[in-house]
Amino acid sequence: MALITISGYPSSGKSQRAAQIKRHFEARLADPFYTGPSLSVVVLDDDTLNIDRSSYNDSRSEKPARGTLFTAVQRNLAQNKIVIVDSLNYIKGFRYQMYCAAREIKVRVCTVYVLATPDLCKQWNSERTDGKAYAPETLANLLQRYEEPSSMVRWDSPLFTVSWSDEDVPADDIWRAITEGVVKPPNTGTQAVAKAPTDALRTLEHTTASVVSALVSEQANSGSLGGTTAVTLSPMLKVRITLPPRNVTLSELQRLKRQFVMLHKKAITLGTTEKGAVDWSEQSVADKFVVYLEENMKP
């Protein structure tokens, strides 16, 4: 239903804000006057996923920690859940990765930026007594590397900034963003590609060659120049093509065939994100090739 990304400095109060959002939303969902869909609110954080603060001491241990968090995000994203990701989320590339995962599931997104000064974060970190404080050198490194969210980029917007001096989060605004905001379609890069059948390349080569041969024979046999003509490739395969008012040479047809084949090889080898099923049958290839010839043959 929605992905809410919490971002901010280490020890800036992110978990407190995530808890406030969860409390507001659960109260709203439990209200007798609530008439929307049945939803659950899930908070994913380092503690529930057993990610120790020491994981951020170096990049070698931090990478699998982010992988654990991202896997949990993918597993929980659903149309009946509001997922709140309460972690550092300080790298814009990681926030973009979660944004793409949310778009693939077609859920709404927003980012909550928990704002606090570095000095306050250092003070609050040193005062922690729960054993979850960051090492001083780790904290300093994370503060330096933090990449601030921006409302100007699509993966951070809509962006809500909550200062350390604010008593509460803008719950009503966040609720509207995740329930009424635009559901963006998946990125082309995240869509599953439709793979061509294993014999598609052979069909492409064989069918286009058959069309070229049939056109050359038809011109030689009929002696006509131009006009619409029916060409039989096999008892089950026939096409109609409109030729220019001249004799179309074999070399021109072969050149256009090579161009057509090259244009479609990539879709066969890498797949395509075209909507609907992609038809690589002989009839479909022949029809597409005829259209290509009609558009590219010189008058």
From TrEMBL:
SUPFAM superfamilies given in the database record: P-loop containing nucleoside triphosphate hydrolases
Domain of life: Eukaryota
GO terms assigned for molecular function: ATP binding
GO terms classed as biological process: regulation of transcription by RNA polymerase II; tRNA modification
Swiss-Prot/TrEMBL keywords: ATP-binding, Nucleotide-binding
Assigned protein family: Belongs to the KTI12 family.
Subunit architecture: Interacts with the elongator complex.
Record-given protein name: Chromatin associated protein KTI12
Organism for this UniProt entry: Pisolithus tinctorius Marx 270
